[in-house]
Amino acid sequence: MLEIKDLHAGIDGKEILRGLTLSIQPGEVHAIMGPNGSGKSTLANVLAGRPKYEVTSGSVLFEGKDLLALPAEERAREGVFLAMQYPVEIPGVNNIYFLKAALNAVKKHRGEEELDAMEFLQLAREKMKLVELDEAFMNRGVNEGFSGGEKKRNEIFQMAVLDPKLAVLDETDSGLDIDALRVVATGVNELRSEKHSVLVITHYQRLLRYLVPDHVHVLAGGRIVKSGGKELAEELEQKGYDWIDQEAAVAAR
Amino acid sequence: MTTAVNPETVTASAAGLRARAAEVFEKLGWPTTRVEEWRYTNLAPLQKIDWRTDDAPERIDSPATMIGRAALELIFVNGRLVDRNGDLQVRVAEEAGIADWERNAMVALNTANMQDGARIEIPAGTVVDGFIHLLFIGQGDAIWSHPRNVIVAGSNSQVAVVETYVGSGSYFTNAVTEIVARDGAVVDHYKLECESTSAYHVANIYIQQERASSVTSRSIAIGGALARTETNVALAGEGASISLDGLFAGTGAQHLDNRTVIDHIAPRCESLELYKGVLDQQARGVFDGRIIVRPNAQKTVSRQENRNLLLSETAVVDSKPTLEIHNDDVKCNHGSTIGQLDREALFYLQSRGIDEEEARNLLVFAFAGEIVDRMKLEPVREQIRRALFQVLPDRMPERRGSSR
């Protein structure tokens, strides 16, 4: 589904990803862990197409298509979703209106029939229950006045509605209490199927207790330095990242 | 309602007044940018034109009509009343005498050439159901009009008045509206300036508020090659309150000037002001907001805010909020911001599949929507959304947030 090859990218002329290679098959859940500054968020933003981030070399294929050649909205329509680390507040843009417009843009692209207001509302209500968001939130501005936890739940709610093929979670767990964490995990687990893939980017192992990954990768110095199964996450939790840094330093020589 | 008289008659006794006002205009001349109040707006192009009045205009159909929705609609073409719809009967107002024709050159010019206008008095204690619509249509080139409106809301009365300015051609509207809110009166006033984009528009609004009256006045400036609206509010009676909102949205080479003066004369009055500007292409916007708190006006509460959104590199806005406080028992704050579309918000919308153009539109309408959503009259909100849709970006979302 996703093929990242020797990706070099950065921001403001500074290279942060230095040759990242990663392959995700349909139905797989991958976790990328790593210390601060290792390039986790850069990877998420490059995949979603945030301006400012520059790709200097390498390639990213999504279902065989050159993802990097597409503007952000087309990546979303192809089925890539980024749950953002810092969801922005957009006062005056109604949550429900915005999400319906987004879903219908995606549906139109897929050649599916667009939903009318009633159909959309029914779908939204169902997904809201899943992430335990109060309906009152939906008639407010996008993320307007939401707490940190509510913003993250809104990200998962949007993901659930848009039903992406590849969901990228950029530190969705950071700053969440245990209840919110469980809600996020429920939302992601609900999405899991043989057709859907998930890339969880996180600093901590906490979320991975509820959201058991098929593969765990350690990112350090802008590339993946170690890959393994879910037990790797536990090892990192116990030993910290120092031993990885040392291994990476050795490998870089 | 009581006496049934035509509200639309201009008081003919004004002959002497006209002559005196003509003398004043002769003396003051057209305002120039050397005058502080006109620093940002140059009327020189208007002086080169040999303006004439249209004495026998014909009735024109306009999509801006609110027939059927307004309790009373008066339609003016080039300053002359051509039609009247609705059953509402009102009294003819006396001269309000609050427009300052002795110092304000454009008011002097209006007074000297005064044409028709609404002269409406709401008797004390009367609540007008629905709203009164005054529709001013400009038509043709090198034609000027000088409408003069007087709205007097008697003690404890309630009324909503909408002024709409539309048209086609390069005409010049020079309007004056006087509003008096007597003790405890509630007035909801709207001015929708949607003139032809080659027209000139100058309007002076005078609002005089007596004890415990409450006025909201919303000014929308969307049309005109050059449009200037000056709103003067005198909070003359204790405990009066004014809510003054404005939205100016310009594109092309439009010049949209908004000047407001709120004079806190009496104690315990409140003024809340929010003006928003959205400017695209080479458009230029002006917000010049002055608040005066007189020595007697203790316990004044005043909040003023001007926020501007520039959509292009070449759009310009001049924002000049001024506070003059002459006593120390007041709560006042004012602020002004100028910014571009939030890139983060734009990316957020795009990252969900919404294309850039629609994302921009959503954000622009969200910004402008704050003013529109605060308007009580649904037909007015509709009218403005339609008008905004024509000037601002290509598509209008069906619905925006209503969180504010």
In short:
Chain A has 253 residues and is of the alpha/beta class.
Report the uncertain regions of chain B.
Answer: 1-10, 394-404
User: What is the rounded distance between the termini of chain B?
Assistant: 36 Å
Helix content of chain B: 10-25%
Largest sheet of chain A: 6 strands, mixed
Q: What CATH architecture of chain A would you give?
A: 3-Layer(aba) Sandwich
- Mean pLDDT level of chain B: 91
Q: Numbering strands along the chain, what is their spatial order in the largest sheet of chain A? A: 6-9-10-3-11-12
Count of the separate structural domains of chain B: 1
- Helix-strand category of chain B: alpha/beta
Let me know the number of strands of chain B: 20
Q: β content of chain A, as a range?
A: 25-35%
**Most residues in contact, chain pair and counts:** A-B, 38 and 31 residues
Oligomer: heterodimer
Shape of chain B: globular
Sequence stretches where pLDDT stays below 50 over 5 or more residues of chain A: none
Provide the β-strand percentage band of chain B: 35-45%
The largest beta-sheet of chain B arranges its strands as 2-1-5-8-10-12-14-16-18-20
> Which whole number gives the mean pLDDT of chain A?
91
Order of helices and strands of chain B: HHEEEHEEEEEEEEEEEEEEEEEHHH
CATH topology name of chain A, in short, is Rossmann fold
Task: Show the helix and strand layout.
The complex is a heterodimer of chains A (253) and B (404).
Chain A: E1 2-11, E2 14-24, E3 29-33, H1 40-48, E4 53-62, E5 65-66, H2 72-78, E6 80-83, E7 90-94, H3 95-110, H4 117-130, E8 141-142, H5 148-162, E9 166-170, H6 178-191, E10 197-202, E11 215-220, E12 223-228, H7 231-239, H8 242-252
Parallel strand pairs in A: 3-10, 3-11, 6-9, 9-10
Antiparallel strand pairs in A: 1-2, 1-4, 4-5, 7-8, 11-12
Helix pairs in contact in A: 5-6
Chain B: H1 15-28, H2 44-47, E1 72-77, E2 80-85, E3 91-92, H3 105-113, E4 119-122, E5 132-139, E6 144-145, E7 148-153, E8 158-168, E9 172-181, E10 186-193, E11 200-209, E12 214-221, E13 226-235, E14 241-250, E15 255-264, E16 270-279, E17 284-293, E18 300-310, E19 316-325, E20 330-339, H4 343-350, H5 356-373, H6 378-391
Helix pairs in contact in B: 1-3, 4-5
